[in-house]
Amino acid sequence: MTSFLSHTPGYWNKLRPYHGIILFFVVMMLANWAWKIFVRDGNYDPYVQLFGLNVSWPFIKVQHEVIRVVGLVFDLFGIPFGLLHGTTFVFANGQSSEIAWGCTALKQAFIFTCIIAFSRGSWKNKWWFILVALPIIHAINVLRIILVGVVLASHPHYFELAHTFFFKYFFYFLLFLFWVLWEECFYRRPLKKKQLLKASTSTEK
């Protein structure tokens, strides 16, 4: 074990160009694992629990807001629907879809916050980058639910493909794109400027 650890820094240095992407995937998986372990938010649970405490309030607020906005868009584009128990959209073809806890994207928002918080770069930019990105993530989640609803209302045989596969992994691809933006614009670019400034200063001396 000691021999292995003594060689580990050398291997890690060889992977230097990939440190950022490795960190991204490690933090994403750990944040996802932490959520599954510590947060109980099953679709059929009466409330959301964190360490056994009821933390349903933000989930309920976001859930109701998502339902309200999605309903307005369906009305705007003339997609007939009914609302069952205040959380389930029922369409003219008899298909229905419940907007459950998992549809709030709060889990993805948590994972994204962890990714940026543990990424390389200055906290001077991290806090506002997170605050700007979170409403965008919410808006894209609402759009995702609208599109899934359109698929269910018009082409229900594609619902499973759209809901379980395409839009699910698209969301994580979106988180990856946000991280790339952070890494390139708020870590690598300032680092390059700092290195160039240091080089020019040493040249002048």
Briefly say what this structure is:
With 205 residues, this protein is mainly alpha-helical. It is 70% helix and 8% strand.
Layout of helices and strands:
Blueprint: H1 2-14, H2 19-38, E1 39-40, E2 49-50, E3 53-54, H3 56-76, E4 81-84, E5 88-91, E6 96-98, H4 106-117, H5 123-154, H6 159-204
Helix pairs in contact: 2-4, 3-5, 4-5, 4-6, 5-6
Order of helices and strands: HHEEEHEEEHHH
Structural class: mainly alpha
First CA to last CA: what distance?
A: 46 Å
Low-pLDDT stretches are 1-6
How many helices does DSSP assign? 6
Beta strands, count: 6
Integer average pLDDT:
86
Helix content: over 70%
Tally of distinct domains: 1
Radius of gyration: 22 Å
Report on the biggest sheet.
3 strands, antiparallel
Side by side, the strands of the main sheet go 1-2-3
The general outline is elongated
Explain how this protein is built.
- The model is unreliable at 1-6 (pLDDT under 50).
- This protein is elongated.
- By secondary structure, the protein is mainly alpha-helical.
- A hairpin with an 8-residue loop joins strand 1 and strand 2.
- It contains six helices and six strands.
- Helix 2 packs across helix 4, helix 4 (106-117) runs parallel beside helix 6 (159-204) and helix 5 (123-154) runs antiparallel to helix 6.
- It has one domain (31-183).
- The protein has a three-stranded antiparallel β-sheet. The chain has a three-stranded antiparallel β-sheet with strand order 4-5-6.
- The longest helix has 46 residues, at 159-204.
